[in-house]
UniProtKB/TrEMBL annotation:
Transmembrane segments: none
PANTHER family named in the record: AMELOGENIN, FUNGAL STAND N-TERMINAL GOODBYE DOMAIN-CONTAINING PROTEIN-RELATED
Name of protein: Nephrocystin 3-like N-terminal domain-containing protein
InterPro entries attached to this UniProt entry: NPHP3-like_N (IPR056884), P-loop_NTPase (IPR027417)
UniProt-annotated stretches for the region Disordered: 618-644
UniProt xrefs under Pfam families: NPHP3_N (PF24883)
Keywords of this entry: Repeat
Domain Nephrocystin 3-like N-terminal, chain residue ranges per copy: 89-253
Basic and acidic residues bias spans: 630-644
The keyword Secreted is annotated on this UniProt entry: no
Length: 644
C-alpha cells in the first residue's frame, strides 16, 4: 500500500521511512480493524491492511451485475453494422455533457435488443474511459434481481476511479456500519452523493475528467414494481436534483414503474427531465435483423460439416425473408432461431428447414421456439398473478379476458372485431378495463388507435407476431392456453347481461350503452353463441322474460344501420324459437318471437340478394318463414315493426 511512500507519518504513531519499512511506535490498531502493529518491521508492500469501510462495502456488492462479469459470460451485444443509428444517438447523448437532460430512458418490447444495446454501449464507454458504472439486472439471478446490493455496487464502481473518492466512501461506511440496511435513498445519499461532493471540493479536481456514464439495464427485472419506482425516484432526488455530473442511461421494458414516471398525460415526474427513446416504435430493426440473420447463418454454414450449409445458396433469400417477417422487428426471435440452428450435433440446413416449415401440431418433437416461449410464459404468468391479486379483479380470469381480446383483435369469430372500449362493454366490464388488463404486458402487447380507421378505433397491437401465435397454440403455451369455447361462452354470458340491463325507454338508451353501438350486443351475441347454438336454457329464458325480442328489435332498428350481411342474427332467432317451442315447452314465448324472426330474416335475405350474394335460395331453405297464427305464409308484420 505504501510501496512508493517515503518519510511520512500516519496518525502520529505509524511512520514510513526511506527503507520502505513500517514502524509502529506504539501498539495500536490500524483504522479500527483489530490488526495490530508492534515494533516489528515488515516490508510496506506486504502490509496486511485493507480499509475496514471498503472491505464492508465489498461484502455488499453484486459483482454479477458488472458489464464484464464472468456470471454474464457471452452477454448479448450488437453485431457489427447493426443498430448503428440508435448506438450513435445514445453515444452522442452521453458525450454531450452540456445537454440539458442528464437522464436517458430507453423502453422497448421484450426481446427488442435493449440489453444488447446496453452491453455494446458499456463496452464502448469502458474503452473510451468514460464508464462510471454499469448495472445489469436479471430476474434469474438472486444477487441482481433486487435493490439490496445496487447502491453499494454503484459506489464501488465509482470509487475505483479516484482514490480520494474511495476514501470518502470508506469513511462513510465506517461512520455508519448499518448503512446497508437503510433505504436506498439514504444509501445513495451517504455512499454516492456526499462522497462525490467532498471529492469536488478538492483543489485541482477536474469534474470533466471523471468517468460520467452511469448505465442501468433491465430495470423491469428488479423484483417488485414499487422497488423499481423506488430506484427511479432515488435517481431523481439524489443524482439529478443534486446536479451531479453523470449521464444516466436506463433501459427497461415499458412496465408500470418507468411508464408512469415518463407519462406526459399524467405529468409523470421524470417526463420533463428525461430524454425518452421508445425503441420498438422509433427504430425499425428489420434491416438490422436481416443483416444479423445473414451474417450469423452464413457463419454457422462455413463451420458446418454439412456441404449443403457451405453452399453459397444457403440460406435462401426466401427463407431469410420469411424469418425477417416472423421476427416483427424483435431481435429475440432472430437470436432464438440462430441459437437453434447452431446446434453442432445436427445439420444447420435441416434445423433451419424445421424452423421455416414448423407448425404447432400436437405431438411434434421439434421445439425451435422453446427459449422464446419460456420468455412469453414467464411474462404472462407474472402478469396473471399481479392482475388477479388486485381485490377489484378477484374472480376474473386473466387469461380468459386476454384471450377474449386476442380473439376479438384477430377477428376469429365471424370475421368481426370491435373497438377495445366497445369490447370492454360487450364483456360487461368497466371502461378502459383493457388497459388495466395489459398493464403488466406492455413489453409484449399494447392498445393504441389504429391509423387505418377514420374515427378513433382502439385495437390490440402485438410487438411480436410470434406472441399472438403463442396464444393460439396449445403446443407452445401449454397450461396457459385457452381454447375459443370458454371464451365464447364467457362473452355470450356478458352480452346476455348487457342486453337484459337495457331499458326500452328512448331517453335511457344512449346512457345504457356509453360508447357501444346499439346493434353490437345483438350482432356479437349472434356470432359468439354460434347462431344461438351455445346459449344455455337459462340465458334464453332470461332474454324471453326480459323483453329480449323487443330489445333486439329496438337496438337494431334505431341505429339506422345494421350489418345486414350477418345471417347469424336470424339463425340465432330461429334457433331460440325452436328451442322454446320444442325443448323448453314454451310455445307462447316462441310465438312472441316469430314476427321478429320473420322481419329480420326477410331483411337479411333481401340485402344479401341485392348485393349479389348467391346464397339467397339456400338461405330461404335453411331458414323458412314462420307463419303466424291466423295468417298466411305471407302474413303481415306486427304494427310495432311497420316503421322500421
Amino acid at each position: 500500500m505504501f510501496s512508493r511512500a517515503r518519510n511520512f507519518n500516519v496518525g502520529g504513531n505509524i511512520q514510513i521511512d526511506s527503507s520502505q519499512h513500517v514502524h509502529n511506535t506504539q501498539e495500536k490498531s490500524i483504522d479500527g480493524m483489530g490488526i495490530r502493529c508492534s515494533s516489528t518491521h515488515f516490508p510496506a508492500d506486504h502490509v496486511p491492511y485493507v480499509a475496514k469501510g471498503w472491505k464492508m462495502l465489498l461484502k455488499n456488492i453484486a459483482s454479477n451485475a458488472f458489464y464484464n462479469s464472468g456470471a454474464r459470460f457471452d452477454p448479448p451485444k450488437c453485431d457489427e453494422d447493426t443498430r448503428v443509428e440508435v448506438i450513435s444517438e445514445v453515444m452522442d447523448w452521453i458525450g454531450d455533457r452540456e445537454g440539458p437532460k442528464r437522464l436517458l430512458c430507453m423502453t422497448g418490447a421484450a426481446g427488442a435488443g435493449k440489453s444488447a444495446l446496453q452491453q455494446t454501449i458499456a463496452e464502448r464507454c469502458a474503452n473510451s474511459g468514460i464508464l462510471g458504472c454499469a448495472i445489469f439486472f436479471s430476474s434469474q439471478d438472486p444477487t441482481r434481481n433486487n435493490l439490496s446490493c445496487i447502491i453499494p455496487t454503484i459506489a464501488f464502481q465509482l470509487g475505483k476511479h479516484d482514490p480520494r473518492l474511495r476514501d470518502y466512501i470508506k469513511e462513510a461506511v465506517e461512520e455508519d456500519p448499518l448503512i446497508f440496511t437503510k433505504t436506498i435513498l439514504t444509501q445513495m445519499d451517504t455512499l454516492v452523493v456526499r462522497p462525490f461532493k467532498q471529492l469536488q471540493t478538492n483543489a485541482g479536481f477536474d469534474t470533466g475528467s471523471f468517468p460520467h456514464a452511469v448505465l442501468i439495464d433491465g430495470l423491469d427485472e428488479c423484483a417488485g414494481e414499487e422497488r423499481q419506482a423506488e430506484l427511479l425516484s432515488t435517481i431523481k432526488h439524489c443524482l439529478l436534483d443534486n446536479d451531479l455530473p453523470f449521464r444516466i442511461f436506463i433501459a427497461s421494458r415499458p412496465e408500470w414503474a418507468i411508464r408512469s414516471a415518463l407519462n406526459s398525460e399524467t405529468e409523470g415526474y421524470l417526463h420533463p427531465l428525461a430524454y425518452h427513446i421508445q425503441l420498438s416504435d422509433k427504430y425499425d430493426a428489420t434491416d438490422d435483423i436481416r443483416r444479423y440473420l445473414w451474417w450469423r447463418l452464413q457463419g454457422i454454414g462455413r463451420r458446418s460439416h454439412d456441404p449443403r450449409a457451405r453452399s453459397q445458396s444457403w440460406p435462401s433469400v426466401q427463407d431469410i425473408e420469411k424469418l425477417v417477417r416472423a421476427a416483427s422487428g424483435q431481435f429475440v426471435y432472430a437470436a432464438t432461431i440462430v441459437k437453434y440452428v447452431s446446434e453442432r450435433r445436427s445439420s444447420p440446413v435441416d434445423r433451419l428447414q424445421t424452423v421455416v416449415d414448423w407448425t404447432p401440431e400436437a405431438g411434434q418433437l421439434a421445439r425451435p421456439f422453446e427459449v422464446l416461449d419460456m420468455l412469453y410464459a414467464s411474462i404472462l404468468s407474472a402478469a396473471k398473478e399481479s392482475y388477479e391479486a388486485v381485490d377489484t379483479n378477484r374472480g376474473r380470469n386473466f387469461l380468459l379476458l386476454l384471450r377474449a381480446h386476442h380473439i376479438n383483435r384477430e377477428g376469429l369469430v365471424g370475421g368481426r372485431f370491435w373497438d377495445a372500449q366497445e369490447f370492454d362493454e360487450i364483456l360487461n366490464l368497466e371502461r378502459n378495463a383493457h388497459e388495466v388488463l395489459v398493464s403488466d404486458l406492455h413489453s409484449l402487447v399494447v392498445f393504441h388507435p389504429d391509423p387505418g380507421f377514420s374515427q378513433i378505433f382502439i385495437q390490440m397491437h402485438f410487438y411480436h407476431r410470434s406472441f399472438s401465435e403463442f396464444l393460439d397454440s396449445e403446443t407452445r403455451s401449454k397450461n396457459l392456453f385457452i381454447t375459443e369455447t370458454p371464451v365464447k361462452a364467457y362473452v355470450s354470458e356478458g352480452l346476455v347481461q348487457v342486453i337484459n340491463q337495457v331499458s326500452l325507454e328512448p331517453s335511457s338508451t344512449r346512457a345504457t350503452f356509453g360508447t357501444l353501438s346499439r346493434e353490437n350486443p345483438v350482432v356479437a351475441l349472434a356470432l359468439y353463441s354460434n347462431g344461438g347454438e351455445t346459449l344455455s336454457t337459462q340465458q334464453i329464458l332470461a332474454l324471453a322474460h326480459n323483453d329480449g325480442w323487443r330489445k333486439f328489435d329496438q337496438m337494431l332498428s334505431k341505429t339506422g344501420h345494421f350489418a345486414l350481411y350477418e345471417k347469424e342474427l336470424p339463425v340465432m332467432l330461429f334457433f331460440m324459437m325452436q328451442r322454446l317451442k320444442n325443448e323448453l315447452e314454451e310455445p307462447g314465448l316462441a310465438d312472441a318471437l316469430k314476427p321478429y324472426y320473420n322481419k329480420w330474416r326477410k331483411l337479411v335475405k333481401n340485402c344479401r340478394e341485392a348485393d349479389g350474394y348467391e346464397d339467397g335460395d339456400l338461405f330461404s331453405r335453411l331458414l323458412p318463414e314462420e307463419p303466424e297464427e291466423g295468417e298466411t305464409k305471407e302474413g303481415k308484420e306486427p304494427q310495432e315493426l311497420s316503421n322500421s
